[in-house]
Amino acid sequence: MDLILQGLTTQRSTIEQIAGLARSRVVVAVGEHAYRCEGISYNDEVKAQIDVAAWAAQLDYAFIERGRSLGDFKLLVMDMDSTLITIECIDEIADMQGLKPQVAAITEAAMRGEIEFRESLMRRVALLEGLDANALQRVYDERLQLSPGAERMLAAVKAAGMKTLLVSGGFTFFTDRMQQRLGLDYTHSNRLEIVDGKLTGKLTGDIVDADEKKRTVERVCAEMGIQPAQAIVMGDGANDLKMMGIAGLSVAFRAKPVVRQQADVTLNFVGLDGLLQLLDKR
Fold first, then answer.
1. Which residues form the active site (predicted)?
2. What are the residues facing 28 on neighbouring strands?
3. Which of 144, 263, 216 is nearest to 253 (CA)?
4. Among 11, 229, 231, 241, which residue carries the largest CB count within 10 Å?
5. What is the domain count for the chain?
6. How far is the first Cα of the chain from the last one, in angstroms, to the nearest whole number?
């Protein structure tokens, strides 16, 4: 195992101090603010010490088997809201109704795993009843931004020959536009019902909850003729855990505590392109 340490800014002395907790013998720069610590000692006690020290220094860390590369994987799976993009789309749609605080509170509870996702989604969508559908375009134009490092990460995984899947508990209005904008291979999300230019407060079709996210990853892997172990899955909320659980590498991005605790890798400070520092580019 190697220990990867990275941050938005780093000081070599801090890196070496944290590396010393794992008794690393060699520290090698692998990026402007990223280091690979080799020859480490790894156990639960060491991990706990590094977790505290890295958080205090605003550094992300990961224990990775030496030699793992992008070439080991064939599919990158991403959640959309608060992962590929910085916002929760439904919260911003609700803001057009003056209901953002109410909807955002339900969203937050669902992402922490305190409310079952399907129930939370139905409750939130119901609050949107009567909203002019043009509000969706306003959210896309005025508020939707890619998370830091998204385009660099996607360029690298595509160059490595990987396919991309965006699977979201959000809405097709946004995933369709992300697919076209970013050249993604697959998308799957929920469809808002619109009648006479107004949101009805209902969805059409099957709900993309945690189970459906997992099934989608399995389905796309089967279509590609690969195993889920050849997929990298990135997410932030409790409804991502089931699909992350079948991945060869699970990545929690700016995630809720329940997700950080279960993921293989957590990225709390760096951008999505922090993934690239964990794996050889081969």
1. 79 (nucleophile), 81 (proton donor)
2. 36
3. 263
4. 231
5. 2
6. 18
Q: pLDDT, tens digit, for every residue of 216-238?
A: 999 999 999 999 999 999 999 99
- Closest by Cα among 155, 165, 150 to 74: 165
pTM as predicted: 0.94
Q: What is the CATH number of the domain that holds 273?
A: 3.40.50.1000
CB 12: neighbour CB atoms within 10 A?
Answer: 10
87, two tokens: 């916002």
Q: Which residues of the chain have pLDDT under 50?
A: none
Domain range spanning residue 48?
Answer: 1-66
Kindly report, residue by residue over 152-199, the tens digit of the pLDDT: 999 999 999 999 999 999 999 999 999 999 999 999 999 999 999 999
254 & 230 share domain:
yes
Residue 116, pLDDT score: 87
- Give residue 249's pLDDT: 97
